[in-house]
Every structure is written in structure tokens, then in C-alpha cells.
Amino acid sequence: MTVVGRGVGVLLTRRTGPRPERLPTLPRMTTPSGPQHPQSPGHPVPSGQYGQPAPYGGYGEPPRSTGLGIAALVLGILSLPGAFLVGVPGIVLGLIALVLGIVALRRVEARRADNRGMAITGVVTGALGLLLGVLGLLLGVLVLAGAVFFVRTTGDCTTEFDQTGDQARHEQCLRESVEG
């Protein structure tokens, strides 16, 4: 072997010398021409060659995982922390996860997919992320409205305090603004 180069922590080598010979291929076996033995009930009839599985009778292709269930699961999980970012990412990701999960469940029912658990988890986490996102958005709007209200009602009192410096008058002005 000769050293070709170094990768990240790996020594790259090349084989030198003669290459190993390929083994000759064996001829395929065919069906025996002798008497056939009856098959037991419930066992498939062998196909034309030994070692080959018998074909399945009309069952079609087995269901397989689709990307919809996986996408619903991932987006549903991402919608949960996204709900705490003023709600909007949670709403968007949760809604997409909910739709993809429902479509994936329909494919599972039609036997075109087999990832039912992922689809259900995507629907549940998507709905939870959507709900938390709506609550987070409402909470964010209420906090923002309260802050705007507070700034507007106390703005005159703060301006008066800046001009006069009278702390007692400032506190009384704040009480009057908030109470009525």
C-alpha cells in the first residue's frame, strides 16, 4: 500500500500490486424434471427457480412511510417553542403541521402509508402549538395595549414632573390618571 494523503484524522492509502482475480460465475439452477411433490396447505408453490420466493398473490406493494407524517411531526414539535415567540411562528407551524398530519392520516387509512403514529403526533403537537400560539399572540397584544395605555396616560404627568421636579404632585397625577 502507498500513502496517498491525509484527510481529517484519516490516512488515505491506495492498494498496490496485482488485483485479486474474480471468481467464475456458477450456472443457474433450473426446476427439476422429476416428479413434483404436493405442497402442504398454506405454503406457497415454489416459483421457477430454487431460492426464489414465491410471488405474492394480488396483495400489491406494502405500505411505506411517506414524508407527510414525518413533516407533520417535525413541524408540530417546532411549533411548540415557536408559540412562545409572540405566537406567530407557533400559529403558522402548528397550522401546517395540522394539515400535513391530517393528510398523512388519510393516506394511512387508504393503506398508502404506514406512519400513523408520526401523523397522530404531528396533529396533536400542531394543534397544541396552534393553540399556544393564539394564546401567546393574544397575551402579546394585551401586554402591548397595556404598555401603550400606560405611556399615554402617564405621559403628561412625566412631562410635568420633568418641568417642576415635584415628586408628590407627580405621584398624585399618576393616581388620578390611572383611576379616572
Describe this structure in words.
This protein has helices at 67-82, 88-109, 116-164, 167-179, and strands at 2-6, 11-14. The chain is mainly alpha-helical and 180 residues long.
Highlighted features:
single chain; 180 residues; mainly alpha; 4 helices; 2 strands
Rg over CA atoms = 36 Å
Shape: elongated
Q: How far apart, in Å, are the first and last alpha carbons?
A: 91 Å
For the biggest sheet, the summary is: 2 strands, antiparallel
> What is the helical fraction, as a range of percent?
55-70%
Number of helices: 4
Assess the beta-strand content as a share of residues. Answer: 5-15%
Strand order of the largest sheet: 1-2
Order of helices and strands: EEHHHH
How many strand units?
2
Structural class: mainly alpha
Low-confidence stretches: none
- Average per-residue pLDDT, rounded, comes to 77
Please outline the helices and strands.
Elements: E1 2-6, E2 11-14, H1 67-82, H2 88-109, H3 116-164, H4 167-179
Antiparallel strand pairs: 1-2
Helix pairs in contact: 1-2, 1-3, 2-3, 3-4
In short:
The protein has about 180 residues and is mainly alpha-helical. Helix content is about 55%, strand content about 5%.
